[in-house]
Amino acid sequence: MNSIHFYKYQGTGNDFVIMDNREGQYNWLTDEQVNELCDRRFGIGADGLMLLNKSEDYDFAMKYYNADGRESSMCGNGGRCLAAFAHKMGVGDGNLYFIAVDGEHAATMDGDSWVNLKMQQVDFVEHGPLYYYLNTGSPHFVKYVEDVQAVDVFNEGRGIRYNDRFAADGTNVNFVQHFENGIFVRTYERGVEDETYSCGTGVTAAALTFAGQEEKEYVVPVQTLGGQLEVRFTKTGERSFDNIWLCGPATLVFEGDINVK
Ligand SMILES: N[C@@H](CCC[C@H](N)C(=O)O)C(=O)O
User: Which atom of ligand 1 lies at the shortest distance from residue 72's CA?
Assistant: First the structure.
Protein backbone atom coordinates (compact mmCIF):
# COMPACT_ATOMS: atom_id res chain seq x y z
CA MET A 1 0.00 0.00 0.00
CA ASN A 2 1.19 3.51 -0.87
CA SER A 3 -0.23 6.53 0.90
CA ILE A 4 -0.93 9.80 -0.86
CA HIS A 5 -1.86 13.21 0.45
CA PHE A 6 -4.38 14.77 -1.91
CA TYR A 7 -6.32 18.01 -2.37
CA LYS A 8 -9.77 18.06 -3.93
CA TYR A 9 -10.54 21.20 -5.98
CA GLN A 10 -13.48 22.29 -8.10
CA GLY A 11 -13.96 24.99 -10.72
CA THR A 12 -17.65 25.55 -11.54
CA GLY A 13 -18.31 21.95 -10.50
CA ASN A 14 -15.59 20.40 -12.72
CA ASP A 15 -13.74 18.57 -9.94
CA PHE A 16 -10.19 17.33 -9.61
CA VAL A 17 -7.85 15.41 -7.34
CA ILE A 18 -4.56 17.30 -7.07
CA MET A 19 -1.25 16.03 -5.72
CA ASP A 20 1.90 18.02 -5.02
CA ASN A 21 4.50 16.07 -7.00
CA ARG A 22 7.25 18.70 -7.07
CA GLU A 23 9.68 16.24 -5.46
CA GLY A 24 8.56 13.41 -7.77
CA GLN A 25 7.06 11.60 -4.77
CA TYR A 26 4.08 10.30 -6.77
CA ASN A 27 5.87 9.32 -9.97
CA TRP A 28 4.87 5.71 -9.28
CA LEU A 29 1.17 6.46 -9.91
CA THR A 30 -0.30 4.26 -12.65
CA ASP A 31 -3.24 4.93 -14.99
CA GLU A 32 -5.25 2.27 -13.13
CA GLN A 33 -4.61 4.01 -9.80
CA VAL A 34 -5.67 7.38 -11.27
CA ASN A 35 -8.88 5.76 -12.49
CA GLU A 36 -9.54 4.29 -9.00
CA LEU A 37 -8.84 7.59 -7.22
CA CYS A 38 -11.32 9.37 -9.53
CA ASP A 39 -14.03 6.73 -9.01
CA ARG A 40 -17.02 8.33 -7.23
CA ARG A 41 -17.90 5.14 -5.30
CA PHE A 42 -14.61 3.39 -4.62
CA GLY A 43 -12.26 6.40 -4.63
CA ILE A 44 -12.18 10.13 -3.86
CA GLY A 45 -14.34 10.98 -6.87
CA ALA A 46 -13.38 13.48 -9.59
CA ASP A 47 -13.58 14.31 -13.30
CA GLY A 48 -9.78 14.25 -13.49
CA LEU A 49 -6.49 14.16 -11.59
CA MET A 50 -3.57 16.57 -11.81
CA LEU A 51 0.02 16.53 -10.64
CA LEU A 52 1.76 19.78 -9.70
CA ASN A 53 5.18 19.05 -11.18
CA LYS A 54 8.44 20.96 -10.93
CA SER A 55 9.69 22.82 -14.01
CA GLU A 56 13.12 24.31 -14.76
CA ASP A 57 11.75 27.16 -16.87
CA TYR A 58 8.30 27.88 -15.41
CA ASP A 59 6.69 28.23 -11.98
CA PHE A 60 5.37 24.68 -12.39
CA ALA A 61 4.36 22.04 -14.91
CA MET A 62 0.82 20.66 -15.18
CA LYS A 63 0.17 16.97 -15.79
CA TYR A 64 -3.49 16.12 -16.40
CA TYR A 65 -5.33 12.79 -16.46
CA ASN A 66 -8.99 12.23 -17.29
CA ALA A 67 -11.09 10.19 -14.84
CA ASP A 68 -10.58 7.11 -17.05
CA GLY A 69 -6.92 7.19 -15.94
CA ARG A 70 -5.44 8.33 -19.26
CA GLU A 71 -3.25 11.38 -19.65
CA SER A 72 -5.11 13.78 -21.91
CA SER A 73 -5.03 17.13 -23.66
CA MET A 74 -5.48 20.50 -21.94
CA CYS A 75 -8.06 21.01 -19.20
CA GLY A 76 -9.10 24.64 -18.76
CA ASN A 77 -10.89 24.33 -15.43
CA GLY A 78 -8.09 22.02 -14.29
CA GLY A 79 -5.50 24.64 -15.21
CA ARG A 80 -7.38 27.23 -13.16
CA CYS A 81 -7.63 24.85 -10.17
CA LEU A 82 -3.95 23.88 -10.39
CA ALA A 83 -2.97 27.56 -10.50
CA ALA A 84 -5.08 28.21 -7.37
CA PHE A 85 -3.40 25.22 -5.70
CA ALA A 86 0.11 26.38 -6.67
CA HIS A 87 -0.74 29.83 -5.27
CA LYS A 88 -1.91 28.20 -2.00
CA MET A 89 1.40 26.29 -1.85
CA GLY A 90 3.29 29.60 -2.04
CA VAL A 91 4.31 29.43 -5.69
CA GLY A 92 4.53 32.81 -7.53
CA ASP A 93 3.26 36.21 -6.48
CA GLY A 94 -0.28 35.96 -7.85
CA ASN A 95 1.00 35.88 -11.42
CA LEU A 96 1.89 32.35 -12.50
CA TYR A 97 3.51 30.94 -15.61
CA PHE A 98 3.27 27.23 -16.26
CA ILE A 99 3.78 24.66 -18.94
CA ALA A 100 1.06 22.17 -19.90
CA VAL A 101 0.58 19.59 -22.64
CA ASP A 102 -0.52 22.30 -25.13
CA GLY A 103 2.23 24.81 -24.30
CA GLU A 104 2.75 27.84 -22.05
CA HIS A 105 0.01 29.41 -19.93
CA ALA A 106 -0.20 32.51 -17.77
CA ALA A 107 -2.59 32.63 -14.80
CA THR A 108 -3.45 35.59 -12.60
CA MET A 109 -5.06 35.26 -9.18
CA ASP A 110 -7.83 37.63 -8.21
CA GLY A 111 -7.96 36.90 -4.46
CA ASP A 112 -7.38 33.27 -3.45
CA SER A 113 -10.13 31.62 -5.46
CA TRP A 114 -10.69 33.49 -8.72
CA VAL A 115 -8.34 32.55 -11.54
CA ASN A 116 -7.89 34.10 -14.98
CA LEU A 117 -6.17 31.60 -17.27
CA LYS A 118 -4.64 32.48 -20.63
CA MET A 119 -5.41 29.87 -23.27
CA GLN A 120 -3.59 29.11 -26.54
CA GLN A 121 -4.55 31.16 -29.58
CA VAL A 122 -6.96 29.50 -32.00
CA ASP A 123 -6.16 29.69 -35.72
CA PHE A 124 -8.88 27.59 -37.29
CA VAL A 125 -12.55 26.81 -36.75
CA GLU A 126 -14.42 24.28 -38.88
CA HIS A 127 -17.96 25.51 -39.48
CA GLY A 128 -20.51 23.06 -40.88
CA PRO A 129 -24.28 22.97 -40.98
CA LEU A 130 -25.42 23.56 -37.38
CA TYR A 131 -22.01 22.80 -35.83
CA TYR A 132 -18.50 24.12 -35.19
CA TYR A 133 -15.37 22.06 -34.50
CA LEU A 134 -12.23 23.59 -33.00
CA ASN A 135 -9.33 22.91 -30.70
CA THR A 136 -8.85 25.12 -27.64
CA GLY A 137 -6.21 22.84 -26.11
CA SER A 138 -8.68 19.97 -26.33
CA PRO A 139 -10.95 19.10 -29.28
CA HIS A 140 -14.51 20.43 -29.11
CA PHE A 141 -17.61 19.86 -31.20
CA VAL A 142 -20.05 22.75 -30.62
CA LYS A 143 -23.74 22.47 -31.46
CA TYR A 144 -26.24 25.32 -30.99
CA VAL A 145 -29.67 24.29 -29.70
CA GLU A 146 -32.91 26.12 -28.86
CA ASP A 147 -33.40 24.64 -25.39
CA VAL A 148 -30.19 23.39 -23.79
CA GLN A 149 -32.04 22.09 -20.71
CA ALA A 150 -34.08 19.73 -22.90
CA VAL A 151 -31.01 18.09 -24.51
CA ASP A 152 -30.16 14.49 -23.59
CA VAL A 153 -26.47 15.42 -23.22
CA PHE A 154 -25.32 11.92 -22.28
CA ASN A 155 -26.90 10.07 -25.22
CA GLU A 156 -26.62 12.78 -27.86
CA GLY A 157 -23.09 13.69 -26.79
CA ARG A 158 -22.01 10.07 -26.70
CA GLY A 159 -23.49 9.51 -30.17
CA ILE A 160 -21.28 12.27 -31.62
CA ARG A 161 -18.18 11.32 -29.59
CA TYR A 162 -18.37 7.72 -30.90
CA ASN A 163 -19.47 8.44 -34.48
CA ASP A 164 -17.31 7.31 -37.42
CA ARG A 165 -15.39 10.57 -37.53
CA PHE A 166 -14.50 10.86 -33.85
CA ALA A 167 -14.57 7.32 -32.38
CA ALA A 168 -10.81 6.69 -32.58
CA ASP A 169 -9.45 9.87 -30.93
CA GLY A 170 -12.66 11.09 -29.32
CA THR A 171 -13.98 14.60 -28.97
CA ASN A 172 -15.77 16.61 -26.31
CA VAL A 173 -19.29 17.69 -27.28
CA ASN A 174 -20.89 20.99 -26.25
CA PHE A 175 -24.53 22.00 -26.51
CA VAL A 176 -24.99 25.76 -26.51
CA GLN A 177 -27.94 28.11 -26.16
CA HIS A 178 -28.00 31.91 -26.28
CA PHE A 179 -28.69 32.94 -22.68
CA GLU A 180 -29.22 36.48 -21.37
CA ASN A 181 -26.26 38.45 -22.87
CA GLY A 182 -24.09 35.33 -23.29
CA ILE A 183 -24.46 31.57 -23.58
CA PHE A 184 -25.41 28.47 -21.56
CA VAL A 185 -23.14 25.49 -22.22
CA ARG A 186 -23.55 21.81 -21.31
CA THR A 187 -20.71 19.41 -22.16
CA TYR A 188 -20.23 15.68 -22.68
CA GLU A 189 -16.56 15.09 -21.82
CA ARG A 190 -14.28 12.57 -23.46
CA GLY A 191 -12.37 10.55 -20.86
CA VAL A 192 -15.09 11.07 -18.27
CA GLU A 193 -17.55 9.68 -20.84
CA ASP A 194 -20.40 11.57 -19.23
CA GLU A 195 -21.74 15.08 -18.85
CA THR A 196 -19.69 17.17 -16.41
CA TYR A 197 -20.95 20.28 -14.60
CA SER A 198 -18.58 22.47 -16.63
CA CYS A 199 -15.70 22.16 -19.08
CA GLY A 200 -13.27 25.09 -19.39
CA THR A 201 -11.87 24.34 -22.86
CA GLY A 202 -15.46 23.61 -23.98
CA VAL A 203 -16.78 26.89 -22.59
CA THR A 204 -13.88 28.65 -24.35
CA ALA A 205 -14.66 26.92 -27.66
CA ALA A 206 -18.35 27.81 -27.39
CA ALA A 207 -17.60 31.46 -26.52
CA LEU A 208 -15.33 31.86 -29.58
CA THR A 209 -18.08 30.57 -31.88
CA PHE A 210 -20.49 33.07 -30.28
CA ALA A 211 -18.42 36.08 -31.45
CA GLY A 212 -19.86 38.28 -34.19
CA GLN A 213 -18.16 39.03 -37.54
CA GLU A 214 -16.37 42.12 -36.26
CA GLU A 215 -12.66 41.73 -35.46
CA LYS A 216 -12.52 43.26 -32.00
CA GLU A 217 -12.36 42.36 -28.29
CA TYR A 218 -15.23 40.31 -26.86
CA VAL A 219 -16.33 39.43 -23.32
CA VAL A 220 -18.76 36.49 -23.19
CA PRO A 221 -20.51 35.49 -19.93
CA VAL A 222 -21.02 31.73 -19.84
CA GLN A 223 -23.44 29.83 -17.63
CA THR A 224 -22.79 26.14 -16.90
CA LEU A 225 -24.53 23.64 -14.63
CA GLY A 226 -21.83 24.34 -12.03
CA GLY A 227 -21.72 28.13 -12.17
CA GLN A 228 -20.67 31.18 -14.12
CA LEU A 229 -17.50 31.72 -16.15
CA GLU A 230 -16.35 34.51 -18.43
CA VAL A 231 -14.30 34.26 -21.62
CA ARG A 232 -12.43 37.31 -22.96
CA PHE A 233 -10.68 37.31 -26.31
CA THR A 234 -9.76 39.23 -29.44
CA LYS A 235 -11.11 38.10 -32.79
CA THR A 236 -8.17 38.56 -35.19
CA GLY A 237 -9.55 37.08 -38.41
CA GLU A 238 -12.56 35.28 -39.84
CA ARG A 239 -11.66 32.11 -37.93
CA SER A 240 -8.80 33.17 -35.65
CA PHE A 241 -8.66 34.37 -32.07
CA ASP A 242 -5.95 35.57 -29.72
CA ASN A 243 -5.50 36.87 -26.19
CA ILE A 244 -8.04 34.31 -24.93
CA TRP A 245 -8.70 34.30 -21.17
CA LEU A 246 -10.90 31.83 -19.27
CA CYS A 247 -11.95 33.48 -15.99
CA GLY A 248 -13.79 32.06 -12.99
CA PRO A 249 -13.76 30.51 -9.52
CA ALA A 250 -11.48 27.66 -8.43
CA THR A 251 -11.76 26.47 -4.84
CA LEU A 252 -10.37 23.88 -2.43
CA VAL A 253 -13.11 21.49 -1.28
CA PHE A 254 -11.14 19.29 1.14
CA GLU A 255 -7.80 17.54 1.57
CA GLY A 256 -6.94 14.16 2.99
CA ASP A 257 -4.90 10.98 2.87
CA ILE A 258 -5.75 7.79 1.04
CA ASN A 259 -4.03 4.45 0.57
CA VAL A 260 -3.76 3.04 -2.93
CA LYS A 261 -2.89 -0.53 -3.91
N1 LIG B 1 -12.63 19.44 -18.18
C2 LIG B 1 -11.65 19.94 -19.06
C3 LIG B 1 -11.36 19.19 -20.30
C4 LIG B 1 -10.54 17.98 -19.96
C5 LIG B 1 -10.02 17.25 -21.14
C6 LIG B 1 -11.13 16.55 -21.87
N7 LIG B 1 -11.89 15.65 -21.07
C8 LIG B 1 -10.49 15.82 -23.04
O9 LIG B 1 -10.03 14.67 -22.91
O10 LIG B 1 -10.41 16.43 -24.12
C11 LIG B 1 -11.69 21.42 -19.20
O12 LIG B 1 -12.11 22.11 -18.25
O13 LIG B 1 -11.21 21.95 -20.21
Answer: 9
pTM (predicted TM-score): 0.97
pLDDT for 194-209, tens place per residue? 999 999 999 999 999 9
Indicate if ligand 1 lies below 6 Å from the C-beta of 222.
no
Architecture of the 2-118+250-260 domain: Roll (3.10)
Q: Which residues are catalytic?
A: 75, 199
Q: What is the pLDDT of residues 150-190, one digit of tens each?
A: 999 999 999 999 999 999 999 999 999 999 999 999 999 99
Instruction: Give the amino acid at 168.
Output: A
Candidates 113, 44, 37, 50; CA nearest to 76 is 50
Q: Parse the chain into domains and list their residue ranges.
A: 2-118+250-260, 126-244
Question: In this predicted complex, what is the ipTM?
Answer: 0.95
- Cα-to-centroid distance, 191 and ligand 1 (Å): 8
Using the Cα atoms of residue 137, residue 139, residue 141 and residue 147 in order, give the sign of their dihedral.
negative
Instruction: Please say whether the structural domain 126-244 has been given the CATH code 3.90.1150.10.
Output: no
Q: How far is the CA of 228 from the centre of ligand 1 (A)?
A: 17
